[in-house]
Amino acid sequence: MNNEPNKPARHGQNERELAITRKNSFFAGSDGGGRIWATIATRLQTCKMNDVDPVAWLTLALGSIANQWPSAEIDALIPWNYNA
């Protein structure tokens, strides 16, 4: 029994969203698919941490890349550089 009422929770114990992400990555289909899923999940979590709408950012980023965004300016598409 825990006699310390103000003891903080263990790291990850209350991070349900991350646990769901890890569980869903098992269905990626291959090692390459798992790496791609991990990259996408990381970017989406970065959006949330920076108060950026993940859907809006992903739409802009993928649209820009599809329209041949210059690779020298790829840093402008990182979630924390996103301007709504």
Automatic annotation (TrEMBL):
Pfam families: DDE_Tnp_IS66_C. It comes from the Bacteria. InterPro entries: IS66_C. Residues 44-80 form the Transposase IS66 C-terminal domain. This is Transposase IS66 C-terminal domain-containing protein. It comes from Puniceibacterium antarcticum.
